[in-house]
């Protein structure tokens, strides 16, 4: 693999990702709509009759189960491709330790929704422990992302420098610097 810098290659890749991002939900909505129109002869869209508007097993499989499985598999593949690209890119400093690489990979996996694999397994097995674990981990993703991307050594240094300095003008400047650093760190 090579590290891709070419402008036209980046535009082509962006177009491919955009088609995937907007196309997949359109396919899922179409499948769900067609399933309900065919199964109810167009008379019922499922609201008001049950807890979930996906009342039949086939509708649940077509509108939720299969799309979640496809999403998990494709996100896992994208994650693997991204990790391989990062490892093989000559522009990335090779002197970093494996622990730092592992941290980046974990951050990326939270962004790609690897935790949903646990949720899918909880649904398939019907295991309550897995269900509660999935709910806890998935609900805590915002906290994990905050810790992963904001609570790092550079931000800790900026905050400690900010605490040592006094004066209102200096504080305002340092806060802006910290915000810009957080933004730059997440890029």
From TrEMBL:
Compartmental location: Membrane
Topological category with respect to the lipid bilayer: Multi-pass membrane protein
TM segment ranges: 20-38, 58-83, 104-124, 130-151
Coiled-coil blocks: none
A GO MF label: G protein-coupled receptor activity
Keywords, comma-separated and alphabetical: Membrane, Transmembrane, Transmembrane helix
Name of this protein: G-protein coupled receptors family 2 profile 2 domain-containing protein
Organism of origin: Lottia gigantea
